[in-house]
Task: inverse folding
């Protein structure tokens, strides 16, 4: 926490606004509008709820198709199913690990040719804080007249050419879940330039009560509005967002430097066999994702690809287990939706990038509260495993 959160919570208690409305709810919405530069924001109970509302506002109905990035957290796709609609999954490109614009266009054309109708929306994700290829995606979306829903749950503080994530889609989604870059313990927001959409979101998220003295409903509503207590935490948190981004980026820089990182070359990265991926680079074997020019990532999580071809056979799983031995938690990257038991029967357009990223990728400890000695402990553990294997390698080299 930043420090001011508790004051806003006290204010809610002192004024007795213990409800899903009040000064903190209004204030947090204003804070988000001014931080992102977006005209309108509605705060809700979660990012998932915000995505559900976004799809409703795009008119998604049963049996419609909605395009969604495959490499993401399941919460990006699940709300499509809440509405009885069907996801069409798209692979990532190699430069940002987000939706591949070429495959997106192929998929749209193919769905139309197959008489599935035009997809109703495109759910674009900025994975781990790295902005997607928003320019190309927006051009394709507008060419076919399909609205973009921007899942910026992991990307508050990131930007492309100075434009903040959260301002890019027709509707944009933020999350303040416990693991996100700022948190309200749980919470989310829906943002748009269109005031009527955000007003409608507020209406739907408070049970869709018609304007009448009694309780009257003509539409199906939801109980999705953020509480005034939770919004108080958000008001305190938004004050420290820039510190959080600085810290996450400095974690990333530290890991890159201390692990002798190599920047991934998008050209190099198609999987060739079971023991690693092909690359022009020789040393190290620990790869990091570079920010394309004019891209700014909040580096929410530091992610690496481990190439066993170059680490003496050490895989990301070896590193994960070695870290776990030291009571340090690390995790594989998101398992793509097209590989999930829940989603493997839905259409998928891909060429193996997200599979590869999942296979070789590891998320390193990336919290904003990591101390220098914590970071040192992580890299020391990783280096030890890598050194052992290079010694083994050079020994076997001598023997042959
Ligand atoms: C966290 C997350 C969500 C869901 O947000 P919640 O607030 O946890 O419901 C959606 N999409 C992505 C990419 C996320 O990381």
Result:
């Amino acid at each position: 926490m930043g420090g001011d959160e508790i004051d806003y919570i006290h204010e809610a208690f002192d004024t007795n606004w213990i409800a899903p409305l009040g000064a903190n709810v209004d204030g947090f919405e204003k804070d988000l509008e001014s931080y992102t530069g977006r005209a309108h924001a509605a705060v809700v109970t979660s990012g998932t709820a915000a995505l559900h509302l976004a799809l409703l506002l795009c008119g998604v109905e049963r049996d419609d198709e909605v395009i969604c990035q495959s490499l993401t957290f399941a919460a990006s796709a699940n709300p499509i199913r809440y509405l009885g609609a069907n996801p069409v999954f798209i692979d990532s490109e190699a430069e940002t690990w987000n939706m591949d614009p070429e495959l997106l266009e192929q998929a749209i054309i193919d769905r139309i040719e197959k008489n599935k109708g035009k997809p109703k929306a495109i759910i674009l994700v900025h994975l781990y804080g790295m902005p997607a290829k928003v320019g190309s995606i927006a051009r394709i979306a507008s060419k076919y007249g399909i609205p973009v829903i921007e899942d910026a749950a992991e990307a508050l503080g990131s930007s492309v050419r100075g434009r903040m994530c959260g301002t890019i889609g027709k509707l944009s989604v933020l999350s303040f879940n416990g693991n996100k870059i700022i948190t309200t313990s749980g919470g989310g927001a829906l943002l748009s330039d269109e005031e009527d959409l955000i007003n409608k979101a507020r209406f739907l998220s408070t049970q869709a009560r018609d304007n009448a003295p009694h309780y009257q409903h003509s539409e199906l509503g939801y109980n999705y509005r953020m509480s005034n207590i939770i919004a108080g935490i958000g008001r305190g948190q938004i004050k420290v967002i820039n510190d959080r981004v600085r810290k996450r980026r400095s974690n990333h820089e530290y890991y890159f430097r201390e692990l002798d990182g190599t920047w991934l070359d998008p050209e190099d990265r198609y999987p060739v066999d079971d023991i690693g991926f092909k690359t022009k680079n020789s040393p190290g074997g620990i790869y990091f994702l570079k920010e394309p020019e004019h891209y700014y990532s909040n580096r929410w999580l530091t992610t690496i690809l481990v190439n066993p071809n170059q680490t003496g056979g050490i895989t990301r799983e070896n590193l994960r287990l070695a870290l776990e031995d030291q009571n340090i938690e690390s995790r594989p990257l998101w398992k793509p939706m097209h590989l999930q038991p829940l989603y493997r029967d839905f259409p998928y357009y891909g060429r193996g990038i997200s599979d590869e990223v999942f296979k070789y990728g590891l998320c390193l400890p990336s919290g904003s509260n990591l101390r220098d000695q914590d970071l040192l402990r992580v890299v020391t553990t990783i280096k030890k495993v890598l050194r052992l294997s290079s010694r083994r390698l050079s020994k076997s080299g001598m023997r042959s």
Observations:
- The chain has a mean pLDDT of 94.
- The radius of gyration is 22 Å.
